Amino acid sequence: MTTATTPSHGPLTGVRVVELAGIGPGPFAAMLLADLGADVVRVDRPGGPGLGIDPAHDVTLRNKRSVLVDLKAPDGPGRVLDLAARADVLIEGYRPGVAERLGIGPEPCHARNPRLVYGRMTGWGQSGPLARRAGHDIGYIALTGALGLTGAPDAPPAAPANLLGDYAGGSLYLVVGVLAALHHARATGAGQVVDAAIVDGTAHLTAMIHGMLAAGGWQDRRGVNLLDGGCPFYGTYETSDGRYMAVGALEQRFYDEFMTVLGIPEQAPARDDLARWDELRAAIATRFRTRTRDEWTAVFADSDACVAPVLALREAPHHPHLAARATFTDHGGLTQPAPAPRFSATPTTVRTGPARPGADTETVARDWDVPALTAVPGPATTPGSTPETRTPDTRLAPHRKADQ
Fold it and tell me: Taking every pair of C-alpha atoms in the chain, what is the biggest distance, in angstroms?
Protein backbone atom coordinates (compact mmCIF):
# COMPACT_ATOMS: atom_id res chain seq x y z
CA MET A 1 0.00 0.00 0.00
CA THR A 2 1.28 3.45 -0.88
CA THR A 3 1.94 5.61 2.18
CA ALA A 4 2.71 9.26 2.73
CA THR A 5 6.41 8.41 2.80
CA THR A 6 6.23 6.45 -0.46
CA PRO A 7 4.83 8.75 -3.13
CA SER A 8 2.94 7.05 -5.93
CA HIS A 9 4.43 7.24 -9.39
CA GLY A 10 1.72 5.09 -10.94
CA PRO A 11 -0.27 1.92 -10.28
CA LEU A 12 2.87 -0.25 -10.09
CA THR A 13 4.53 1.79 -7.35
CA GLY A 14 6.31 -0.65 -5.04
CA VAL A 15 6.85 -3.31 -7.70
CA ARG A 16 10.52 -4.14 -8.24
CA VAL A 17 11.74 -5.21 -11.68
CA VAL A 18 15.16 -6.42 -12.79
CA GLU A 19 15.84 -5.88 -16.50
CA LEU A 20 18.81 -7.70 -18.00
CA ALA A 21 19.98 -5.25 -20.62
CA GLY A 22 19.30 -5.86 -24.29
CA ILE A 23 17.84 -3.94 -27.20
CA GLY A 24 14.36 -3.71 -28.71
CA PRO A 25 11.25 -5.20 -27.14
CA GLY A 26 12.76 -6.14 -23.76
CA PRO A 27 13.81 -2.58 -22.88
CA PHE A 28 10.53 -1.22 -24.24
CA ALA A 29 8.53 -3.60 -22.03
CA ALA A 30 10.65 -2.59 -19.03
CA MET A 31 10.10 1.08 -19.90
CA LEU A 32 6.35 0.51 -19.90
CA LEU A 33 6.54 -1.08 -16.45
CA ALA A 34 8.71 1.82 -15.28
CA ASP A 35 6.26 4.33 -16.73
CA LEU A 36 3.54 2.63 -14.70
CA GLY A 37 5.54 3.26 -11.53
CA ALA A 38 7.64 0.14 -11.06
CA ASP A 39 11.18 0.48 -9.72
CA VAL A 40 13.05 -0.92 -12.73
CA VAL A 41 16.74 -1.66 -12.29
CA ARG A 42 18.49 -2.31 -15.58
CA VAL A 43 21.53 -4.55 -15.32
CA ASP A 44 23.92 -3.17 -17.92
CA ARG A 45 27.09 -4.93 -18.95
CA PRO A 46 30.44 -3.23 -19.52
CA GLY A 47 30.38 -1.86 -23.05
CA GLY A 48 26.60 -2.20 -23.33
CA PRO A 49 24.50 -3.89 -26.03
CA GLY A 50 24.44 -0.72 -28.09
CA LEU A 51 22.13 0.63 -30.76
CA GLY A 52 24.68 2.99 -32.19
CA ILE A 53 23.06 5.95 -30.40
CA ASP A 54 24.02 7.84 -27.29
CA PRO A 55 22.22 6.27 -24.29
CA ALA A 56 21.33 9.81 -23.24
CA HIS A 57 18.86 9.87 -26.15
CA ASP A 58 17.45 6.37 -25.67
CA VAL A 59 13.93 7.10 -24.45
CA THR A 60 13.35 3.43 -23.56
CA LEU A 61 15.83 3.92 -20.69
CA ARG A 62 13.65 6.55 -18.99
CA ASN A 63 12.20 6.11 -15.49
CA LYS A 64 14.78 3.37 -14.77
CA ARG A 65 17.95 2.98 -12.74
CA SER A 66 21.07 1.23 -13.97
CA VAL A 67 23.78 -0.91 -12.40
CA LEU A 68 26.82 -2.41 -14.10
CA VAL A 69 27.45 -6.14 -13.79
CA ASP A 70 29.85 -8.25 -15.82
CA LEU A 71 28.02 -11.57 -16.06
CA LYS A 72 31.20 -13.31 -17.19
CA ALA A 73 33.00 -12.35 -13.98
CA PRO A 74 32.98 -15.01 -11.22
CA ASP A 75 30.81 -12.86 -8.95
CA GLY A 76 28.60 -11.45 -11.75
CA PRO A 77 25.78 -14.02 -11.66
CA GLY A 78 25.65 -13.80 -7.87
CA ARG A 79 24.98 -10.09 -8.05
CA VAL A 80 22.06 -10.67 -10.40
CA LEU A 81 20.70 -13.41 -8.13
CA ASP A 82 20.93 -11.01 -5.17
CA LEU A 83 18.76 -8.57 -7.12
CA ALA A 84 16.36 -11.31 -8.21
CA ALA A 85 15.95 -12.34 -4.57
CA ARG A 86 14.52 -8.90 -3.82
CA ALA A 87 12.53 -8.40 -7.02
CA ASP A 88 8.98 -9.14 -8.09
CA VAL A 89 9.81 -9.46 -11.78
CA LEU A 90 12.87 -10.22 -13.91
CA ILE A 91 12.98 -9.64 -17.67
CA GLU A 92 15.60 -11.10 -20.01
CA GLY A 93 15.94 -11.25 -23.78
CA TYR A 94 18.72 -13.79 -24.38
CA ARG A 95 18.53 -16.72 -26.74
CA PRO A 96 17.11 -19.87 -25.13
CA GLY A 97 19.70 -21.48 -22.86
CA VAL A 98 21.96 -18.46 -22.48
CA ALA A 99 20.61 -17.34 -19.11
CA GLU A 100 20.95 -20.92 -17.88
CA ARG A 101 24.59 -21.10 -19.00
CA LEU A 102 25.29 -17.82 -17.24
CA GLY A 103 23.79 -19.18 -14.02
CA ILE A 104 20.86 -16.75 -13.90
CA GLY A 105 18.10 -18.83 -15.45
CA PRO A 106 14.70 -19.49 -13.86
CA GLU A 107 15.88 -22.36 -11.64
CA PRO A 108 18.54 -20.49 -9.62
CA CYS A 109 16.38 -17.35 -9.55
CA HIS A 110 13.38 -19.26 -8.19
CA ALA A 111 15.61 -21.02 -5.69
CA ARG A 112 16.37 -17.58 -4.26
CA ASN A 113 12.87 -16.15 -4.76
CA PRO A 114 9.96 -18.59 -5.36
CA ARG A 115 7.56 -15.68 -5.96
CA LEU A 116 9.58 -14.22 -8.84
CA VAL A 117 7.91 -13.68 -12.21
CA TYR A 118 10.59 -14.55 -14.78
CA GLY A 119 9.75 -12.89 -18.11
CA ARG A 120 11.51 -14.16 -21.24
CA MET A 121 11.39 -12.04 -24.40
CA THR A 122 12.37 -13.73 -27.67
CA GLY A 123 11.36 -13.70 -31.29
CA TRP A 124 10.82 -17.42 -31.85
CA GLY A 125 10.03 -18.52 -28.29
CA GLN A 126 11.72 -20.93 -25.89
CA SER A 127 10.86 -24.03 -27.97
CA GLY A 128 10.41 -25.06 -31.59
CA PRO A 129 12.76 -25.66 -34.54
CA LEU A 130 13.72 -21.98 -34.86
CA ALA A 131 14.09 -21.24 -31.14
CA ARG A 132 17.87 -20.83 -31.28
CA ARG A 133 18.01 -19.05 -34.62
CA ALA A 134 18.84 -15.39 -35.06
CA GLY A 135 16.05 -13.17 -36.27
CA HIS A 136 14.48 -9.74 -36.49
CA ASP A 137 11.02 -8.24 -36.35
CA ILE A 138 10.48 -8.50 -40.10
CA GLY A 139 11.11 -12.26 -40.13
CA TYR A 140 8.81 -12.90 -37.19
CA ILE A 141 5.88 -11.02 -38.72
CA ALA A 142 6.60 -12.63 -42.10
CA LEU A 143 6.04 -16.16 -40.78
CA THR A 144 2.84 -15.26 -38.93
CA GLY A 145 1.15 -13.89 -42.06
CA ALA A 146 1.02 -10.37 -40.63
CA LEU A 147 3.62 -8.89 -42.99
CA GLY A 148 1.71 -10.27 -45.97
CA LEU A 149 -1.22 -8.04 -45.02
CA THR A 150 0.63 -4.79 -45.66
CA GLY A 151 1.23 -2.96 -48.90
CA ALA A 152 -0.29 -2.66 -52.35
CA PRO A 153 -1.16 -5.84 -54.27
CA ASP A 154 1.27 -5.00 -57.07
CA ALA A 155 4.21 -4.16 -54.78
CA PRO A 156 6.26 -6.01 -52.15
CA PRO A 157 4.83 -6.14 -48.62
CA ALA A 158 5.57 -2.92 -46.76
CA ALA A 159 7.68 -3.18 -43.58
CA PRO A 160 5.83 -1.36 -40.73
CA ALA A 161 9.05 -0.30 -38.98
CA ASN A 162 9.42 -2.64 -35.98
CA LEU A 163 6.16 -1.61 -34.37
CA LEU A 164 4.04 -4.62 -35.27
CA GLY A 165 6.42 -7.40 -34.21
CA ASP A 166 8.89 -6.13 -31.62
CA TYR A 167 6.55 -3.83 -29.74
CA ALA A 168 2.95 -4.91 -30.39
CA GLY A 169 3.51 -8.65 -30.70
CA GLY A 170 6.48 -8.69 -28.32
CA SER A 171 6.69 -6.00 -25.63
CA LEU A 172 2.99 -5.59 -24.99
CA TYR A 173 2.39 -9.32 -24.71
CA LEU A 174 5.34 -9.65 -22.34
CA VAL A 175 3.90 -6.92 -20.13
CA VAL A 176 0.42 -8.50 -20.16
CA GLY A 177 1.95 -11.86 -19.28
CA VAL A 178 4.16 -10.44 -16.53
CA LEU A 179 1.28 -8.56 -14.90
CA ALA A 180 -0.99 -11.61 -15.06
CA ALA A 181 1.74 -13.78 -13.52
CA LEU A 182 2.40 -11.11 -10.88
CA HIS A 183 -1.29 -11.19 -9.92
CA HIS A 184 -1.08 -14.99 -9.62
CA ALA A 185 2.12 -14.82 -7.57
CA ARG A 186 0.61 -12.38 -5.10
CA ALA A 187 -2.46 -14.58 -4.73
CA THR A 188 -0.62 -17.89 -4.38
CA GLY A 189 3.00 -17.13 -3.50
CA ALA A 190 4.16 -19.00 -6.59
CA GLY A 191 6.17 -17.35 -9.34
CA GLN A 192 6.47 -18.72 -12.85
CA VAL A 193 8.14 -18.28 -16.23
CA VAL A 194 6.46 -16.14 -18.90
CA ASP A 195 7.50 -17.23 -22.42
CA ALA A 196 6.72 -14.19 -24.58
CA ALA A 197 7.52 -14.89 -28.23
CA ILE A 198 7.00 -12.27 -30.90
CA VAL A 199 5.65 -14.91 -33.28
CA ASP A 200 2.98 -15.88 -30.73
CA GLY A 201 1.94 -12.31 -29.96
CA THR A 202 1.87 -11.23 -33.58
CA ALA A 203 -0.18 -14.26 -34.57
CA HIS A 204 -2.59 -13.43 -31.75
CA LEU A 205 -3.03 -9.93 -33.16
CA THR A 206 -4.45 -11.43 -36.36
CA ALA A 207 -7.32 -13.20 -34.55
CA MET A 208 -10.10 -11.06 -36.00
CA ILE A 209 -8.78 -11.40 -39.53
CA HIS A 210 -8.57 -15.18 -39.20
CA GLY A 211 -12.23 -15.11 -38.20
CA MET A 212 -13.11 -12.99 -41.22
CA LEU A 213 -11.10 -15.36 -43.42
CA ALA A 214 -13.02 -18.37 -42.10
CA ALA A 215 -16.33 -16.56 -42.63
CA GLY A 216 -15.48 -15.70 -46.23
CA GLY A 217 -15.19 -11.98 -45.46
CA TRP A 218 -11.46 -11.73 -46.16
CA GLN A 219 -9.42 -12.70 -49.19
CA ASP A 220 -6.04 -14.24 -48.41
CA ARG A 221 -4.11 -11.70 -50.46
CA ARG A 222 -3.25 -8.11 -49.70
CA GLY A 223 -4.65 -4.90 -51.08
CA VAL A 224 -8.11 -6.27 -51.90
CA ASN A 225 -9.86 -6.21 -48.52
CA LEU A 226 -11.77 -3.73 -46.41
CA LEU A 227 -8.92 -2.91 -44.00
CA ASP A 228 -5.75 -3.47 -46.04
CA GLY A 229 -5.99 -0.62 -48.54
CA GLY A 230 -8.11 -2.50 -51.01
CA CYS A 231 -11.18 -0.48 -50.11
CA PRO A 232 -11.18 3.02 -51.70
CA PHE A 233 -12.68 4.63 -48.61
CA TYR A 234 -10.13 3.12 -46.23
CA GLY A 235 -6.64 4.13 -47.30
CA THR A 236 -4.31 7.02 -48.05
CA TYR A 237 -4.31 9.60 -50.83
CA GLU A 238 -1.64 11.94 -52.10
CA THR A 239 -2.26 15.68 -52.00
CA SER A 240 -1.03 18.39 -54.35
CA ASP A 241 2.11 18.99 -52.26
CA GLY A 242 3.19 15.34 -52.22
CA ARG A 243 1.87 14.66 -48.74
CA TYR A 244 -0.98 12.36 -47.75
CA MET A 245 -4.42 12.18 -46.18
CA ALA A 246 -5.76 9.09 -44.43
CA VAL A 247 -9.38 8.09 -45.03
CA GLY A 248 -11.34 5.68 -42.83
CA ALA A 249 -14.94 6.36 -43.82
CA LEU A 250 -16.18 2.78 -43.42
CA GLU A 251 -19.71 3.24 -42.09
CA GLN A 252 -22.35 4.61 -44.45
CA ARG A 253 -23.02 7.79 -42.46
CA PHE A 254 -19.34 8.62 -42.29
CA TYR A 255 -18.90 7.81 -45.97
CA ASP A 256 -21.78 10.10 -46.93
CA GLU A 257 -20.20 12.97 -45.01
CA PHE A 258 -16.80 12.18 -46.49
CA MET A 259 -18.09 12.38 -50.03
CA THR A 260 -20.02 15.57 -49.30
CA VAL A 261 -17.05 17.36 -47.75
CA LEU A 262 -14.73 16.04 -50.45
CA GLY A 263 -17.12 17.53 -52.96
CA ILE A 264 -17.79 14.66 -55.38
CA PRO A 265 -20.98 12.88 -54.19
CA GLU A 266 -22.55 13.07 -57.64
CA GLN A 267 -19.42 12.17 -59.58
CA ALA A 268 -18.46 8.88 -57.95
CA PRO A 269 -19.94 5.38 -58.41
CA ALA A 270 -21.82 3.72 -55.56
CA ARG A 271 -19.58 2.50 -52.77
CA ASP A 272 -21.18 -0.96 -52.72
CA ASP A 273 -20.36 -1.64 -56.37
CA LEU A 274 -17.09 -3.54 -55.88
CA ALA A 275 -16.65 -3.85 -59.63
CA ARG A 276 -16.24 -0.07 -59.79
CA TRP A 277 -13.96 0.36 -56.78
CA ASP A 278 -11.04 1.22 -59.04
CA GLU A 279 -13.13 3.97 -60.61
CA LEU A 280 -14.16 5.25 -57.19
CA ARG A 281 -10.57 5.24 -55.97
CA ALA A 282 -9.45 7.20 -59.04
CA ALA A 283 -12.16 9.81 -58.48
CA ILE A 284 -11.17 10.27 -54.85
CA ALA A 285 -7.47 10.41 -55.74
CA THR A 286 -8.04 13.03 -58.43
CA ARG A 287 -9.96 15.22 -56.02
CA PHE A 288 -7.35 14.99 -53.25
CA ARG A 289 -4.64 16.08 -55.67
CA THR A 290 -6.34 19.46 -56.12
CA ARG A 291 -5.28 20.80 -52.69
CA THR A 292 -2.42 20.56 -50.24
CA ARG A 293 -2.48 18.34 -47.20
CA ASP A 294 -2.93 21.28 -44.85
CA GLU A 295 -5.74 22.69 -46.96
CA TRP A 296 -7.58 19.37 -46.84
CA THR A 297 -6.92 19.17 -43.11
CA ALA A 298 -8.73 22.46 -42.67
CA VAL A 299 -11.59 21.33 -44.92
CA PHE A 300 -12.21 18.18 -42.87
CA ALA A 301 -11.40 19.71 -39.46
CA ASP A 302 -14.97 19.93 -38.15
CA SER A 303 -16.45 16.85 -39.80
CA ASP A 304 -17.17 13.24 -38.88
CA ALA A 305 -15.80 12.05 -42.20
CA CYS A 306 -12.99 10.08 -40.49
CA VAL A 307 -10.23 11.83 -42.42
CA ALA A 308 -6.86 12.83 -40.96
CA PRO A 309 -3.55 14.17 -42.25
CA VAL A 310 -0.62 11.74 -42.35
CA LEU A 311 1.91 13.46 -40.09
CA ALA A 312 5.65 12.98 -39.78
CA LEU A 313 7.15 12.07 -36.40
CA ARG A 314 8.33 15.63 -35.80
CA GLU A 315 4.91 17.02 -36.70
CA ALA A 316 2.81 14.77 -34.48
CA PRO A 317 3.53 16.47 -31.11
CA HIS A 318 2.24 19.77 -32.50
CA HIS A 319 -1.16 18.52 -33.66
CA PRO A 320 -3.80 20.48 -31.68
CA HIS A 321 -5.52 17.36 -30.31
CA LEU A 322 -2.30 15.64 -29.23
CA ALA A 323 -0.98 18.89 -27.79
CA ALA A 324 -4.19 19.43 -25.80
CA ARG A 325 -3.96 15.92 -24.33
CA ALA A 326 -0.20 16.19 -23.74
CA THR A 327 0.23 12.94 -25.68
CA PHE A 328 3.86 13.94 -26.10
CA THR A 329 6.05 15.52 -23.47
CA ASP A 330 9.44 17.17 -23.20
CA HIS A 331 11.88 15.98 -20.56
CA GLY A 332 15.51 16.94 -20.39
CA GLY A 333 15.36 18.37 -23.89
CA LEU A 334 13.92 15.16 -25.41
CA THR A 335 10.50 15.23 -27.03
CA GLN A 336 8.93 11.82 -26.44
CA PRO A 337 5.58 10.07 -26.07
CA ALA A 338 4.10 10.50 -22.61
CA PRO A 339 3.32 7.39 -20.54
CA ALA A 340 0.13 5.58 -21.52
CA PRO A 341 -2.56 4.68 -20.62
CA ARG A 342 -3.84 7.20 -18.08
CA PHE A 343 -5.06 6.57 -14.54
CA SER A 344 -7.47 8.64 -12.47
CA ALA A 345 -6.09 7.68 -9.05
CA THR A 346 -2.44 6.83 -9.77
CA PRO A 347 -1.22 9.17 -12.51
CA THR A 348 2.02 8.43 -14.30
CA THR A 349 4.73 10.73 -15.55
CA VAL A 350 8.23 10.84 -16.99
CA ARG A 351 10.15 11.05 -13.73
CA THR A 352 13.71 10.71 -14.96
CA GLY A 353 15.59 10.82 -18.22
CA PRO A 354 17.41 7.84 -19.74
CA ALA A 355 19.38 5.88 -17.16
CA ARG A 356 23.12 6.07 -17.74
CA PRO A 357 24.84 2.66 -17.54
CA GLY A 358 25.98 2.03 -13.99
CA ALA A 359 25.04 5.48 -12.71
CA ASP A 360 22.69 4.20 -10.01
CA THR A 361 24.71 1.33 -8.56
CA GLU A 362 25.16 2.89 -5.12
CA THR A 363 21.54 3.97 -4.67
CA VAL A 364 20.20 0.61 -5.85
CA ALA A 365 22.60 -1.23 -3.53
CA ARG A 366 21.25 0.84 -0.65
CA ASP A 367 17.55 0.80 -1.56
CA TRP A 368 17.43 -2.90 -2.43
CA ASP A 369 19.88 -3.92 0.33
CA VAL A 370 22.32 -5.54 -2.09
CA PRO A 371 25.72 -4.38 -0.80
CA ALA A 372 27.57 -6.77 -3.13
CA LEU A 373 26.70 -4.46 -6.02
CA THR A 374 29.27 -1.93 -4.84
CA ALA A 375 32.00 -4.46 -4.13
CA VAL A 376 35.04 -4.43 -6.39
CA PRO A 377 34.13 -6.81 -9.24
CA GLY A 378 36.13 -9.93 -9.85
CA PRO A 379 38.04 -10.45 -13.10
CA ALA A 380 36.15 -11.63 -16.15
CA THR A 381 36.67 -15.23 -17.19
CA THR A 382 37.71 -14.01 -20.62
CA PRO A 383 39.20 -10.50 -20.71
CA GLY A 384 37.03 -8.16 -22.73
CA SER A 385 34.27 -10.72 -23.18
CA THR A 386 30.58 -9.98 -22.65
CA PRO A 387 27.53 -12.22 -22.27
CA GLU A 388 25.75 -13.60 -25.28
CA THR A 389 23.07 -11.02 -24.89
CA ARG A 390 20.57 -9.84 -27.44
CA THR A 391 16.98 -8.94 -27.77
CA PRO A 392 14.48 -11.20 -29.30
CA ASP A 393 16.65 -13.75 -31.04
CA THR A 394 18.46 -10.94 -32.82
CA ARG A 395 22.17 -10.96 -33.60
CA LEU A 396 22.24 -7.72 -35.54
CA ALA A 397 21.03 -4.35 -34.37
CA PRO A 398 21.08 -1.38 -36.75
CA HIS A 399 24.74 -0.65 -37.57
CA ARG A 400 26.08 -2.86 -34.81
CA LYS A 401 26.02 -6.47 -33.64
CA ALA A 402 23.99 -6.78 -30.46
CA ASP A 403 26.42 -9.24 -28.89
CA GLN A 404 29.62 -7.38 -29.66
Answer: 79
